[in-house]
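Budget justification, computational time. The allocation requested in the original proposal was used primarily to generate structure tokens for proteins on the priority list. As evidence of use, we reproduce two of the resulting records. The first is shown immediately below.
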Amino acid sequence: MSIHIVTDSTSYLPGGYAEQHGIDIVPLRITIDGVLYREFVDIASDEFYMKQESGAKAVTSQPGRRSLSGSTRGCWRTRRMRFSVFISPAL
């Protein structure tokens, strides 16, 4: 049985590393002034920091269950064990 690694975008893996090693990255959710973004999908780091510097209020939250479901379905289809690494909710 093979192992499939899943992490969230707070892992900040170097560019191309996840693709090279077959790691799924689930984006963190960021709400800025009431608008929901997915980290590195809907908003890049430089845009996020520009909004912060201009006084925007940002709140982050863990990836939703729906974001994880695609990875889980893929593991069931290919009979791979999923190993997930996420940031602690206690932080």
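The second record produced under the same allocation is shown here.
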Amino acid sequence: MLEAALASTKALANSEAPITGGGSAVYFDLFGRVMVVAKQSTFFAINLVLLIAGPALVLGLLFIYSRRGELDRITTGWLRLPVALTISTLATLGFGQMILAINPLVREIFV
């Protein structure tokens, strides 16, 4: 991945093509196969659309399921996520504290 980024940087630096357009460029590598290059304003627009469309889609689906009378089945599944996330986070933090208390060598690394 570093080789692909280095080759892309060299190609961009040695290019004789005129620089057109305004704004900062955003570029990144996808799985070492594709180089994505776009204007920063393009990614801002995509981000804005997704931030608006995502919650609107969820609210629309909630409205449709409430009209069908199937909302109680959907909300029970949605309530499981915060409970499972809380339990798993507390378990992870608890086991981490237990390892720090038992093994003094681990404590020296993080202090």
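A brief technical remark on that second record: The longest helix spans residues 71-102.
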